[in-house]
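Aim 2 progress update. The chain analyzed this quarter is reproduced below.
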Amino acid sequence: MAMDFQGRVAIVTGAGGGLGRLHALALAQRGAKVVVNDLGGAVDGSGSSATAAQKVVDEIRAAGGEAIANAASVTDFEAVQAMVEQTMHAWGRVDILVNNAGILRDKSFAKMDMADFRLVVDVHLMGAANCCKAVWPHMQEQNYGRIVMTTSSTGLYGNFGQANYGAAKLAQVGLMQTLAIEGAKNNIHVNALAPTAATRMTAGLMPEPVLEALKPEAVVPAMLVLAHESAPTRTILCAGAGGFEAAHITMTEGVYLGLGDQVPEQLAARLAEVTASEGQQVPGSGAVQGQVEVGKAMKAHGH
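Predicted structure tokens:
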């Protein structure tokens, strides 16, 4: 069965180039109507131009697809709301949101200006939140929605020189976890994609043969799976160079130590046991941690 997006309407942010452009083209090729959003700025977020988005729209139309351009900054909630209204006016629904817009301001934390930290968090985290908030009532009303966050291995595992980017990218996973829970009753599935791809944001960081293997095209199948009506929810899918993996935020079984003056020393002595991965689980929600901890306490006290 071909993965079909006929009749679906998608908004892709940061779609004027790189991965976002390929996401928009792939969705359009499979039948979706696409809003190509791009501020048209540089990698560091400076400047703006509507031409980047329009070029991608022209590509989609030339191939027989339907698309409209939008140059809103994802950091501007009113502009994002206007983009969603533009979508509703054009096509009457919004089924898919791919939060792909992003910028880089890389420096070691010691040398990083806090304005650069805040701006990266604003674009990646608040930008995603703004877009989710704007589409949410429409997705609730139609009882259908697919939202794809773009996280990163930097957010999941860290990377030197990217404290701002990493913080913003893992924050998107936290947003995904809660929105997936809240959206379940309205058939809104929310997932995260962690791409490894050679784009203008990674240019100059890797040797040529590696860049060749990391064609951004290799990431697109994971986005399509997460944006499709058959998509899972609360899944972190990693993709790059033709490989696909999943990342899980897990909780170990841990130990019960109770209260007492010696608990810090006991915890230090048994830390390896606490962090051991055997029997770990992927909690269904944040409440599970409390349930596990209270359960240990009740068991220890014979309840």
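The chain has a mean pLDDT of 95. Strands lie at 9-12, 33-37, 67-70, 96-99, 145-150, 188-195, 236-240, 243-247. These observations will guide the mutagenesis experiments scheduled for the next reporting period.
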